[in-house]
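Standup notes
- DV: blocked on the single-chain target, sequence here:
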Amino acid sequence: MESGTGDPIVFLHGNPTSSFLWRHVVRNLAGHGRLLAADLIGFGDSGKPDVEYSLADHGRYLDAWFEALDLRNVTLVLQDYGAAFGVSWAARHPDRVKALLLAEPVLRPIESSALPDAFVQTRALVRTPGEGEKFVLEDNRFLDELFPATFLERPADDVLAEYNRPFPTPESRKPVLYFPRNLPVDGDPASTVEYLDRNTEWLRTSPVPKTLLTFEPGFLTTPDVLAWARQNIAELEVKAAGAGAHFVQEEQPEAIAEAVVALLGRVR
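- DV (later): unblocked, structure below
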């Protein structure tokens, strides 16, 4: 998804969505720059190569995308695992980053005590060999049951159908399985924690303006994660953006767009 001209504003999604998640936000930002919403590899209209879909795999494909488009002076607008990958790119290309906005990001390990019991139990099931494959790949319950339940109001059937479209077969759902298995909860798995830790120095020292949006009730931005962000992210403004769960682009697109415009106004 691409429109407009000027400095690039890049939108990165997480699991199990695609650039489609950003459509309303992008529409509200017409005229504010070159708007680019990417599909992570294996998601949306991207290809499905025979890879693990690890954090490193996603990073490698995203790096190639940034390079192919020669994106510079970039404002990053990031959600879910898109935040992990976007901040990683920023940390390795600090001279190409203009500003950063985070909404429901995978940013730090999350404490299980702050998550719904049903989610903790489902994550344990998904991480169990065999059971996870059945839940996500074979029965498609992640997309058919868990995903619709993460909104304040269930999306319309045609919207859910579009999110489901890239995953018609068990094999095609392989990218969806990796992310919940590797979401860092209570410090596990260590590999994801280490990946996120490598981004910390840039967050602490980068002079570019940054915004973290909070939502009510929210999901990943727990009180501990929010406290960490306030203490460890330089040039950070925290803004309440209204009611929202996790896929907040469907619930608060105008508020997110307004926050992007305000963030751009802070660029020196």
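- Follow-up: The first strand starts at residue 2 and ends at 3.
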